[in-house]
């Protein structure tokens, strides 16, 4: 029997009505001939409530108890979803993480999945169960304690189940109807993509397109599990949403697939850093230990043994970064003449696997920005992405200009 | 190390503040030299919310899914209680039913405890853990699914743990400060009892003194676990509350320990029933199948092969009882000439193990009622209890008169 994994996020199961609506989608796939593993999140708001209680009780909480508490939200949804399916005469039962068992590491609150034995669920499928409803986001440690996978862990749970059970596809039901060429709030020309490659999705996800958790996309790419991002709130349509898949399965595509943005960036430059081996390691090692999420790093050529070192980080981490490099200077770990901070920048990126075989994308991007009089402050590139830092006030203008320049309103 | 079991009901853990207050009590017993097993209920209102969701989702719900859903409330409290204790530097951890494991039958939603292996918890106590916080009301079936013990199951969980671990005592923390000679809302002369025998508590509990669940008292009696009922909301006092214990441990006591009442009773009489062998079985078998909770049963002597058969049941079950006996008559299972219903009665009882060795209690009771002009409609007696049905309007008067007549405001 072909098998599907269907994952419903918190807003898709926020009320009993929405659970019923989600269950209808599941019922339809069962009618289509699938066995289904449903992964559910907690009802919207529940996990935040539980986390709040834990933090109020114990600011430096024992992560094992945190996991025992916050995992309960998913258990409630799993049972209610199984009951709803039973009411629709679909043979279903719920499974908590430890019942599967979904085996994880002992890294409480951010555990990694180690193994998902398939025998328990498969035995029930063989007995006629059509739907296994599994509480997402949770597992069991080697010590027999409940673990959670960290925020967004239900997406990862879904992909891991799809990989373990050889599912035909993993459908991620959420509150958006797919992946767009860019943020539709910025330009109405934004177009929903029918397909996008794993690599592109990874770049878009880490750039702030909060549709899928990065880890779940990595996992899907490694195990070649096709993902479908689809809205819970639209009428059923088997072709709805966006398929995230291997690039070989995407026949034709634009050179550029999407324009991503990240609003709250800051640019920090250490002026006149002594340019000797190990200096970059010293700076970024210290920043990493201080918990600063460094994104772009740019080092220009040096003159007379000194260079300028620039990096970007979220605006609200600038103070921390400042303190960190000043302390490193006092400890004589690094040496620089001055610090320049620009907190009013944003990042805009174009992403596309087509770039690998097409030249001139960067030039086209810079021209489009230049035509709008937008000054580029920093540039970085990867194989399938070009990112620039620009003044924050130009964010919308830049996204619109690039979306037009690469013709993204038309499908490839 | 001596061991205590402490159970906190829903109102005692209703908020983070109350959990903190409860944890302080636990901390004090640890300071007194005890290892402690804490049994917690769900935060007040949580179980009702979960039950509401299940019933709305599926009126004839699968009890296995019901259990998976409603058990989650206790898991939350257990984790929060463990965190609170850790904040107070008391080594503690939480245990869910399946982790202990508390093994039960497969009778979902009303499972019975089969076994509580002590090795897992004892291994942790040996490692230095001082408090095991256990989610009450839940266990695991032989099939590995979550079970619940039914309403009030946390009391039963507490007593079962006390029995399994040979606890010195089982303290039931609740929102009343003990067991009273009668309902303090009816007479201000009601006096808190320092001690009461298991048998008396059973009669009082089943008569509507809703302090302890009947099953938990039965279990405590069987395993001779001393219970202490004590308020969470009063200042700490090692002698507070009421001890429920073996009658041998109660040195002196009044002949009568308490006056109980049950307000909403109805008296139903089948007139002129053919008096032949098997007729009582036919009537009460049918009533039982129909779900009527028959309490008192009275059959008078028969005349000319016919007799009157009277029973009492809750007022809101009269219609069901009526329908049931009429149907049984139509099917010719029983035969009677008429049905008399009196829905305006209540039950008043005096309870005391002293009755066993004292005669004249019944006479004294009837005299006291007679002196107030209260007519007795039905009488039943057991070894340690005398119950009467009287007109409902006399309930308060009767309770006050009996409380005075047996001198209950003074300790024995």
Give me the secondary-structure topology.
The structure is a homodimer of 412-residue chains.
Chain A: E1 3-8, H1 16-31, E2 35-40, H2 46-57, H3 63-70, H4 72-87, E3 92-95, E4 103-104, E5 113-115, H5 119-126, E6 131-135, E7 138-140, E8 146-148, H6 153-164, E9 169-174, E10 195-197, H7 198-206, H8 214-223, E11 227-231, E12 242-245, E13 258-274, H9 279-289, E14 297-299, E15 306-314, H10 318-330, E16 338-351, H11 361-371, E17 378-382, E18 385-391, H12 395-405
Helix pairs in contact in A: 1-4, 6-8, 7-8, 9-10, 11-12
Describe the structure in your own words.
The structure is a homodimer. With about 400 residues, chain A is of the alpha/beta class. In chain A, strands 3-6-2-1-9-11-12-10 form an 8-stranded mixed beta sheet, sandwiched between helices. Chain A is globular. The model of chain A has no long low-confidence stretch (mean pLDDT about 90). Helix content of chain A is about 35%, strand content about 25%. Chain A has a domain at about 5-175: Carbamate kinase (3-Layer(aba) Sandwich). Chain A is built from 12 helices and 18 strands. Chains A, B: One of its GO terms (molecular function) is aspartate kinase activity.
């Amino acid at each position: 029997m072909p098998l599907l994994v269907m994952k419903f996020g918190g807003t898709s199961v926020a009320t009993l009505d929405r659970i019923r609506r989600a269950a209808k989608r599941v019922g339809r796939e069962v009618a289509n001939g699938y066995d289904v593993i449903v992964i559910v999140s907690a009802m919207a708001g529940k996990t935040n409530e539980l986390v709040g209680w834990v933090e109020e009780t114990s600011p430096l909480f024992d992560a094992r108890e945190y996991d025992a508490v916050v995992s309960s939200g998913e258990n409630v949804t799993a049972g209610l979803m199984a009951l709803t399916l039973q009411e629709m005469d679909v043979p279903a039962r719920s499974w908590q993480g430890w019942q599967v068992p979904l085996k994880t590491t002992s890294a409480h609150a951010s555990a990694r999945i180690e193994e998902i034995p398939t025998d328990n669920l498969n035995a029930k499928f063989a007995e006629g169960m059509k739907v296994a409803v599994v509480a997402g986001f949770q597992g069991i440690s080697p010590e027999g304690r409940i673990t959670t996978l960290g925020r967004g862990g239900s997406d990862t749970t879904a992909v891991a189940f799809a990989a373990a059970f050889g599912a035909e596809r993993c459908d991620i039901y959420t509150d958006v109807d797919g992946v767009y060429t860019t943020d539709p709030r910025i330009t109405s020309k934004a177009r929903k993509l029918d397909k996008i490659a794993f690599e592109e999705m990874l770049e878009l996800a880490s750039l702030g397109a909060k549709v899928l958790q990065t880890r779940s996309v990595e996992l899907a790419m490694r195990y070649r599990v096709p993902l479908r991002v689809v809205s819970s709130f639209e009428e059923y349509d088997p072709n709805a949403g966006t398929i995230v898949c291997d690039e070989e399965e995407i026949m034709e595509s634009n050179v550029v697939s999407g324009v991503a943005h990240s609003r709250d960036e800051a640019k920090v430059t250490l002026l006149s850093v002594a340019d000797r081996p190990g200096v970059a390691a010293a700076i970024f090692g210290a920043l990493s230990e201080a918990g600063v999420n460094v994104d772009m790093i740019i080092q220009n050529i040096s003159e007379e043994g000194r260079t300028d070192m620039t990096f970007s980080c979220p605006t609200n981490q600038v103070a921390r970064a400042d303190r960190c490099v000043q302390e490193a200077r006092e400890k004589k770990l690094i040496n620089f003449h001055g610090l320049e901070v620009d907190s009013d920048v944003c990042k805009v990126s174009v992403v596309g696997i087509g770039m690998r075989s097409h030249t001139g994308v960067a030039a086209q991007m810079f021209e489009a920005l230049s035509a709008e009089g937008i000054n580029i402050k920093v540039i970085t590139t990867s194989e399938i992405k070009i990112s620039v830092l620009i003044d924050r006030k130009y964010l919308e203008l830049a996204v619109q200009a690039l979306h037009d320049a690469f013709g993204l309103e038309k499908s490839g």
